[in-house]
Structure prediction request, 332 residues.
Amino acid sequence: MLRAGTVLGAWGVAYALLSQGVEVAILQSGEGGFYADVVQRFHKTLEQQGYALPTLTFVLKGDRTDHDLPRRILERKPKVILAVGTDAALRLKEFYTTLPAEQRIPVVFTLVMDPVQHGLIRSAEESGERFAGAALALNPQKQLRALHDVVPTAQRIGVIYNPNEFVSQGFVNQARRDAERLGMSLVEAHAAQATQFESALQQLQGKIDAFWVIPDAAYRDPRAFQYALEFSRRQRIPILAYADRFVRDGALVGAGIDISEQGALAAEQVIRILEGEPPERLPLLTPRRVLIYYNLAVAQELNISIPEMLINLAEKTYPESKQKREKQEAVR
Prediction:
């Protein structure tokens, strides 16, 4: 549950910080996957900015030991706590309600959707709390537009989500409005966890032209996407996703953010706090660009022709297209 690591960078500011015993404690909502990518980018960004910070990493396990982790973290007396993921941020938020104000160490969160709705901060303009960070902000319209660009005939979009999660509810509510603007409609089914996906997918059979993987917590379990992938292959329909890893594993198109960038944004907030800015005054940081990914092998299987212009504009294709490879070689 507890690991220790040090990020080494340039001297100067770095040495001064180390001599003061500056330390960042990291609490992750889970092990590996997105969390590891974000933390790696966090460390790299700190190093690039000349900060060498000893870090301690704690991971939520989903059992009784989680309850004691915030107390154990504060016992280490870090200058800042990095919360990676919604569960980690909310665990700390709950614990902070039991502490006097002077004991609440600044928390920088990342990989959190709608932190205002979660009560982590008061507004996007200014935190107003001991929490500040970066939001996992995804635009439904841009994702649907990416699908429409390559499959304009897809009008009925299937989506499965947990109706008990207000973040998923908010995302789907916005998606309904965005879909209507594009001449699409959502066909919805509910699943609170991955084990319910098969029955939820059966409700969509024969009713949809494409399936949409949205940032619902159920997709933390790899079985959820696997069920969706097998369903789409049987139905011969494309999958739209919000991250490149789904495209790599079989979705046709992905439109979303650079997940690892969440680590870079978190590092920016941590540096500002270490340099004296109170977290209460920091604004919420959000992703700076939308990235598009295509799976050309899946496109071929589904007899979908993706225009060369779109392929050239994509962040990445699977497998890598000849055009993009030649363009990268020309740059080098």
Summary: The longest helix spans residues 33-48. The chain is about 40% helix and 20% strand. The chain has two domains: 2-136+259-281, 140-256.
